[in-house]
Amino acid sequence: MLRSLASSYTVQAAVAVLALLLLAALLAPWLALQNPFDPAVLELIDAFTRPGQPGLTGALYPLGSDDQGRDVFSAILYGLRMSLLVGGASVALSLAIGVPLGLVAGYVGGWFDTLVMRVADVQLTFPVLLVALLVFGIARGVLPAGYRDDMALYVIVLAIGLSEWVQYARTVRGAVMVEKHKDYVLAAQVIGRSRTGILVKHILPNLLAPVLVIASISFALAIVAESTLSYLGVGLPPTQPSLGTLIRIGQGFLFSGEWWILLFPGLVLLALALSVNLVGDWLRDALNPKLQ
């Protein structure tokens, strides 16, 4: 993998950009010039300050400010944290659902395999965004109105996670159906290993490479899905900003000349999604033994 990484300057650049964005998100409280979502520190008279210019209070805004006097640079750092958190938590939830279902369905077969695959087939007939909107709408309808903003993060993670588990289940099931007939699995059965032990200790380690590749690509898709939902106004609220929320806010001022409110969050989202996709493609090739 290191040799493969050293031979591709494109992947090296993608890894560097991804590491920089992750570091910026982790250090947001220290790098941000202000807490952009604390009303006590906002200056309304500095609203719509252009990038690189000082506001009426003398404060410098390197990427400009929005209609509330929020520093766009600081808002991007905090929004990046939320986007990465939603993406990582959604992938973890999809893994927790899809991998066990795929393992059991592929190894046991029978009616359970048929049930899981038919449910997966039905879900695949609907776009991922539509499934996420459906889950989000149901969850928001069940929750009391006073808790909707507080639970928005958990609801969006649940919505995206439940819409992405099918890819893991189908991939793992297919791999298990191949692996379970190999000699090392038959040997484990002969010496009396339990089904759980065979699945967890013998088969699952051999499936980590394809699962890791799917997880890396799903991470980018989850971030884009969350940004899309937030842009549509059904994602995270302004009090818990993500890059999609910032883009939705900036879109309202694009045609009035305040282009920077939309442009800079959009560029960061583009860089994040592109770098994750490039790293995922590299992992797919580097972990494929047929290409070695």
What is the class in the CATH system?
Answer: Mainly Alpha
How many separate domains make up the residues?
1
Estimated share of beta-strand residues = under 5%
Total strands: the figure is: 2
Residue-averaged pLDDT, rounded?
85
> Would you identify the CATH H-level superfamily?
MetI-like
Task: Quickly count the helices.
Answer: 12
CATH topology group: MetI-like fold
Cα(first) to Cα(last) distance is 10 Å
Membrane topology: Multi-pass membrane protein
Pfam families: BPD_transp_1 (PF00528)
Domain ABC transmembrane type-1: 80-280
Keywords: Cell membrane, Membrane, Transmembrane, Transmembrane helix, Transport
Describe what this molecule looks like in 3D.
This protein is mainly alpha-helical and 292 residues long. It has a single domain, classed as MetI-like (MetI-like fold), CATH 1.10.3720.10. 68% of the residues lie in helices and 1% in strands. It contains 12 helices and 2 strands. The chain has helices at 2-6, 9-26, 28-31, 72-108, 110-124, 128-142, 152-179, 183-190, 195-203, 208-231, 243-251, 260-286; strands spanning 53-54, 60-61. A two-stranded antiparallel sheet has the order 1-2. α4 (72-108) packs across α10 and α6 packs across α7. The model has no long low-confidence stretch (mean pLDDT 85).
Q: What is the secondary structure topology, with strand pairs?
A:
Elements: H1 2-6, H2 9-26, H3 28-31, E1 53-54, E2 60-61, H4 72-108, H5 110-124, H6 128-142, H7 152-179, H8 183-190, H9 195-203, H10 208-231, H11 243-251, H12 260-286
Antiparallel strand pairs: 1-2
Helix pairs in contact: 2-4, 2-12, 4-5, 4-7, 4-10, 4-11, 4-12, 5-7, 6-7, 7-10, 8-9, 10-11, 10-12, 11-12
